[in-house]
Each structure stands twice: as structure tokens, then as C-alpha cells.
Amino acid sequence: MNLRTEIVKDYLGRFPNTKNLTLARKIKNETGLVFDTTEQARDLIRNYRGSHGSARREQLQDRSFLRTRTIESKDNEYNLPESDALEYPVFTIPAAQNEILILSDVHVPYHSVDALTVALRWGRQHGINTVFINGDFWDFHQLSHFMKDPRKRKFTEEREIGWRVLDTIRKVFPDAVIYFKAGNHSERWEKYLKVKAPEIFDTEEFGLDIILKLGERGISYIGDKIRVKAGKLFILHGHEYGGGSSSVNPARWLFLKTKGNALCGHFHQSSEHIENNINGEIIGSWSTGCLSELHPEFAVLNKWSHGFARVRVAKDQTFKVTNLKIWGGQIL
Questions:
Q1: What's the CATH fold of domain 90-331?
Q2: Residue 140 CA from chain centroid, whole number
Q3: What pTM did the predictor assign?
Q4: CA 293 to CA 109: how far, in whole Å?
């Protein structure tokens, strides 16, 4: 075994979940002149992970680093190279978690204390057993690629305030299951790492859920590229399809994108759109209001409104959405 092979196997063992190119860059940067190029390291990584096709994979003597592809090829009669294409998975909320409080776009530390208080109070009074934080809980202003305002709070300060809010939610709902769905503001963390520290971008220790210490609070993290289902209803943050921010009716925009039952946040507006198709089946879509400040400096004039939702799922997987709007600290 030569030195390059030993180094690659060592890194594969220590960083089993790091992407090929990210790991190759890390190896090249940390091992000096051992590798002439990053691609040289990447080629060895791909070899030991079995990414050079089934023929090469079968010839490997050391098979301990082989990866199961996210999307398996059902028919590859021409022995095409294995694809790096990834699946867009679905997470199904268990049937027992059937009274779900949807909280979207809290944007800590720019949250609305009044609106969030109304939502938590309503949830406590209505037997909620599941809290679903549907994206953009934190703002992460200083991690944004936009021009930074030095007067805004630092990442560590934002994180500390967010923990206090999460701890309050846990106190209000001590027995509830709490899910934390990533949104577009959460992407700022990944983009920041890609630019500032690509070598550690894909290591588990720097995953957003680890940095935010969600597991320590008994909160389940759901990544950005995962669809969520509650019964027959899909729950998205809303940024996954791109665009739509200027829609007159975000719910109708969501309906046209999904062609199915769906609920989202992201647009900071409460709306709904319900139709029946040619089979007489009713299809609905909803967008929820936000729980953040309504007139931030970057968008003083807007169409935003405060709100949240309750999703009740029946045993037959049918569901009911109660889309609640808040005005002046009261539910409309």
C-alpha cells in the first residue's frame, strides 16, 4: 500500500459522511505535496467508495468504504458510471402525533413576542401533542451573503436567544414531540461554510443541528431537502420551489407547484386555495403567517401578517387545517 492510499483510507475512516470533493480538498490542503491535485485525491476516494462503476467495485479487495447509493440503478446493462444524483426523501410524521402546531418564520432575534405568545397560548389550550417549527426559526443575519449591518447581533448571540425561545416552547409543551425544519435562512450556515471553510463543510461535527444543539433539547431536526407528510398533507417551508414571494395568493402559487395538498410558510402571509379535480377530489393548499417583526428595515412596506396553523390528522390520514391569523395580539 502506497502513501496516498494509506492517507485516503485514513480520511475515509475518520470522515465517512463527508462528500467526495469536500474530503478531497481537505486531504489536499492537509497533506502538502503528497497529492499533485485535488482531483487525484478525489479519484482515489471515489474508487474506494465504489463510484467508478460496478466492474471496478467488484475488483476492490478492501470493501469497507463502499457506499450504498442514494438512488440505486435498477437496470444498468451498459455498465454506465454510478450517478451522484440524490433522492428528495419524504419524512412521515407518525400517526400518534396528530395534533400539530405549525410555527413558521420566527426569525429570532427579530421575533414578535406578542404573536409568538398568542400561538403558544392557543396551542396549549387546544391539546397540541406536536410542535412543528417550519423553517427560518433563526434569522442568521451575519451569515447572509447580503451586506451585513454591524449593529445586528452576532451569530453566537442569535443562537443564545434562540435557545431561550426553544426552551420556552419545550416548557409550554413538556410532553410534545418537537420538529425543527430547516428553511432558506438555515441555508446561510451551509453557504457560509462552503465559502469560509470548505474542508469542514460536510463533517458531522459542523452540521447545523449539532451547532444549534437541538438534540440536547429533545428536538428532532429535519433537513432542508426533505419533504414532510402529515397524513395526506405535505408540509414544506416554501422556498424549495423558488420564487413566489410576490404572489397575490401564495397558497394558489403553492397549489400550482405541488398539484396536491400542501402547506407552507416562507411568504409571511396567511392564505388558502381549495379546488376539486375531475375525479371530484378536494385538493387544498395553505400558507401561514409569520411570527417575526412585520416591518424590518429591508422591507418596511410589505404584505406580511402574523399567523400560525393547527393540523389535525385523522386515523384514515385525512386532515384538517386551521389557519389562524393574528392581528393586534389577538386571533382574528
A1: Purple Acid Phosphatase; chain A, domain 2 (3.60.21)
A2: 14
A3: 0.78
A4: 10
